[in-house]
Structure formats: C-alpha cells, structure tokens
Amino acid sequence: MTNVENKAGYAKLGFWERNRLSGGYVFKKLIMDKAVSIIRFILLFGMCFMIIQPILNKISVSFMTESDLYNPIVISIPENFTTANYRLAAELMSYKEALFNSILISLTIAGLQIAMCTLVGYGFARFEFPLKKFWFACVILVILIPPQTIASSLHLHFRYFDILGIFNLVTGQTINLRGSKLPYYLMSAGCMGLKNGLYIYMIRQYFRNIPGDLEEAAYVDGCGTLKTFIRIMLPQAKPIITSCFLFAFVWQWTDGFYSKMFLGNTKLVSTALARIVDSLGAFIQRINGVKTTISVAYSNCILATGTLMIVMPLIFLYLFAQRAFVESISSTGIKM
C-alpha cells in the first residue's frame, strides 16, 4: 500500500482507535490544544475586560442620580435612571459649539500636518541633501523631547513674532500672535505640531520600503519629480497616510497642551472637559445664589459623563473607518 492509501485508511479510523495506534499521542495532543485555547481565551478576555471595564463604569455612573452614587446597594445598574447628567454636561461644556470647533480644527490641523509630513518624509526617504543625517536626528529629537520643554520659547516666539526682523524694521514693533489660531497652523505647516516627528518617521520608513524601480520607470516615461510623487508614490502610500491621519485627528481631538497654549480662546471639547468641574461649581452657585460645596462623587459623575461625550465621536469615527484603518495598519506592518 502507498503512503496516500495508508493516510486515507488511518483517517477513516475512530478517535480512540487512532489514539491506541499512536500510543496515546492523539488524546494528549487534543488535551493540550484545548488547554492552550482555554488559556488564550482567559488571557484575551482578561485584557479586553481591563480595557473596557473603566468605560463600562463611566457609562453606568453617567445614568445615575446623586442619590444612587451614595447608595451602597447600587453598584453597576442605576436604581433611578436619568439622562439629566448628559444635559448638564452639555450645557457646562457648551457642547454643540465645542464639538463643531473641535471637528473643524482637528480636520484642518490633521490634514495640514499629514500633507507637510508626507512631503518631508518622502524627501528623507528618496533624496540626498546636505546634513541629511543631522536633520533626521532633529526629527528624532522632536519625538523624544516633550513639548512642555519648549513651552516658554514658543510663548515668547509668538508673543514677539517677527520674520528676520522685517516687521520690526518696517513697523517699529513685532506682532503679537497670541490668542489666535495662526501660530498653531504655522507650527503644523512647519512640521512642529503635535506628534509631527512621529508621522515623518513612519512615512519615511514606509517610502524607503517602496521599490525605487517605480520612480525610475516614471522618470523614463517623462514624469518629473513632483508628478511622480503625486501620481505614483502617493497612491502607494495610502495605508500609512490613512493611519497617520487618524492618529493626528484623535491626538488633536484629545490634546490639552497645544490647545490651551494656542487655542485657548476657542471652545474645544478637550479644554471644556478640563474645566467642567469648575463650571459645575459656578453653575450650582448661580442657581442657589450661595457658594455650595459639591460632593466628590457627583463631580466625578459629571466628569465621567463629559468624558463619554468626548469619546463617543471618536468611537463612531473608528467604527466607520475601521476597515481602512485595519488595512492600513496591516499593510504598513508588512512593508515596514
């Protein structure tokens, strides 16, 4: 009998017959596979629960009244279900205005950052220029050095803004850009915005792994450098651009440092959430007419509600962009 016939006959045997012929190996392998599957399930379930459990707690607390917060019987399911916390949090944060401003600024800032970082990353990946390694080391420093380190320098630079002394020479004084959105847009255009160093690094690594034969073929066909970049390289870089854009949007949405420094006069969901407890105290005092001490539990309840109202748009964004995001991450991982 051939090996194929032997394997076919062996497969037709029952489980215990195959186990007997293998000296107990089949049963041991089955037990081992089941044990590994159970352990994997427990680990995955535990990690997922650790991630989701704080969100579930916030959802539960957001629908509780103040009496439920101090009721020892109530743990996860509210006894007196209410949506008043959402209405109060929306009023305290000026939610509609803050939501519109956050969407507008996050979209424009993220688009500007990715456009400029794509150009810079492509330049680092494909061209040789003086001090290339030094400038790329500066990009790495932008990733490593926290923005709080240069906060004072940024404040003074845009408080007394000038370009090569031209404004001071013509008008006799510098320009104060504090209190406007222009400084943040200028920083994003100069690849010094939030996490721009990371985007440049990711895009540069991606372009380095694209074969240079594509560009050489385009040059032979008569395409210039810019046309080759737009028509050949950008379509190839859709995965990494999608990933970086989503990262840029989310980080800008939740950012508190740059938003407070440059966009302090604009109502945003991130800055409104940071002031929601103080706004709650002022709101209660305005209603009662006297200064009232707010309980810690109720303050945390309103804070949790505001947090959910900020997170929910991001969850919807990822639900709609899930397929493109997963494909971009997997493709990026393979090519990097």
Features:
MetI-like fold, mainly alpha, flat, 336 residues
Helices and strands in order, then pairings?
Elements: H1 3-12, H2 15-21, H3 25-62, H4 66-69, H5 84-93, H6 95-126, H7 132-144, H8 151-159, H9 166-171, H10 182-189, H11 196-208, H12 213-220, H13 225-236, H14 238-254, H15 257-262, H16 269-274, H17 276-288, H18 296-320, H19 322-335
Task: Describe what is shown at a glance.
By secondary structure, the chain is mainly alpha-helical.
Model description:
The structure is a single chain. The longest helix is centred in the N-terminal third of the chain and has 38 residues, at 25-62. The radius of gyration is 29 Å and the shape is flat. It has 336 residues and is mostly helical. The protein folds into 2 domains: 1-47, no CATH class; 87-335, MetI-like (MetI-like fold, Orthogonal Bundle). The chain has helices spanning 3-12, 15-21, 25-62, 66-69, 84-93, 95-126, 132-144, 151-159, 166-171, 182-189, 196-208, 213-220, 225-236, 238-254, 257-262, 269-274, 276-288, 296-320, 322-335. Helix 6 runs antiparallel to helix 14 (238-254). The mean pLDDT is 83.
Q: Structural class of the helix and strand makeup?
A: mainly alpha
* Name of the CATH class of the largest domain: Mainly Alpha
Total individual domains: 2
The CATH homologous superfamily name of the largest domain equals: MetI-like
User: What would the CATH topology of the largest domain be?
Assistant: MetI-like fold
Straight-line N-to-C gap: 50 Å
The whole-angstrom Rg is 29 Å
Series of H and E elements? HHHHHHHHHHHHHHHHHHH
Kindly estimate the percentage of residues that lie in beta strands according to DSSP.
under 5%
From the spread of the alpha carbons, the general shape counts as flat
